[in-house]
Amino acid sequence: MTLDDFLETFGRGLPILCYHKMGRPPGNAKMRSLYVSSGLFEWQMRQLRDAGFESGSLDSPRANTGGAVVLTFDDGSRTLMRHALPILEKYGFRAIVFLVGGAIGGVNHWDVAAFGETPDPLMDDGDVKEWLSAGHEIGAHTMSHCRLTRVGADVAREEISASKKSLEDRFGVPVRHFCYPYGKWSKRVRDLTQEAGFETSVTLDAGINMCESDPFALQRLSVNHPQRNIRTLLRLSMARFPLQFFFQI
Questions:
Q1: 19: β partners
Q2: Is the CB of residue 198 less than 8 Å from the CB of residue 159?
Q3: pTM over 0.85
Q4: Does domain 3-238 have CATH number 3.40.1790.10?
Q5: Using CA atoms, how far apart are residues 51 and 77, in angstroms rounded to an integer?
Q6: Which end of the chain is more exposed for a tag (fewer CB within 10 A), N or C?
Q7: pLDDT tens for each residue of the chain, 249 residues long
Q8: Where are the domains of the chain?
Q9: What is the model's pLDDT at position 66?
Q10: Bridge partners (DSSP) listed for residue 80
Q11: How far is CA 103 from CA 137, 145, 146, 166, in A?
Q12: Distance set, CA 146 to CA 103, 150, 201, 226 (Å)
């Protein structure tokens, strides 16, 4: 697949791409699909630039349709600093990273606890400040990366609102955008993000955003490490919005 396979779809609205970790996955990593190599990431950015795409913004998602793409990174893996930041600068793209308020400078404890995943260091204060200085944005991803649909309303409200306040106090910038952990959301959770003062929230529901899209249920296309097996290729061939985004298969 190349970007040409997606141009018509991308032109119908605003594509928001979702990344997690960058670089080659460690040998003992269990969730290898969350990694995208720097070589592949650079190839993707070059494809987007050469096709005339520019950085879109979550500030006005309904106005950013046609020729714009939003690049998002979930969790704040420190691998972004080495493998994504220089490439974004080289090709002139801006991005937003969604940070877990209570895990700045820590590790992905939620994946370690739930899946026995290899600990992945997260961006610390210095990394976040460097990211911001380079012209990129930060958004909130709760305080603990909990599944908001599985906790009570009071806990969910605190996780959402406290993540916004903690990041704003810590880094001195407005935090206007929210990302649902694991992409899980409900009407109740959606309303709590709006109540907390966010302007948009992003999901992991696959699709392209149109002018009429709910700003608190924005769809994204997940960009994953290519799984080169027959079952994966069959699934991609049948999917309307393939999870493997323009890989050289």
A1: 73
A2: no
A3: yes
A4: no
A5: 28
A6: C
A7: 567 777 777 878 999 999 999 999 999 999 999 999 999 999 999 999 999 999 999 988 877 777 899 999 999 999 999 999 999 999 999 999 999 999 999 999 999 999 999 999 999 999 999 999 999 999 999 999 999 999 999 999 999 999 999 999 999 999 999 999 999 999 999 999 999 999 999 999 999 999 899 999 999 999 986 554 434 434 444 444 444 454 432
A8: 3-238
A9: 74
A10: none
A11: 18, 9, 12, 11
A12: 12, 8, 16, 27
Q: What is the Cα–Cα distance from 180 to 208, expressed in whole angstroms?
A: 17
Q: What is the DSSP string of the chain?
A: --GGGTHHHHTTSB-EEEE-EESPPPTT-S-GGGEE-HHHHHHHHHHHHHTT-EE--SSSGGG--SSEEEEEEEETBTHHHHHTHHHHHHHT--EEEEE-GGGTTSB-HHHHHHH-PPP-BB--HHHHHHHHHTT-EEEE--SS---GGGS-HHHHHHHHHHHHHHHHHHH-S---EEE-GGG---HHHHHHHHHTT-SEEE----S-B-TTS-TTSB--EE------SHHHHHHHHH-SS-SS-S---
Q: Tokens for 85?
A: 């930041």
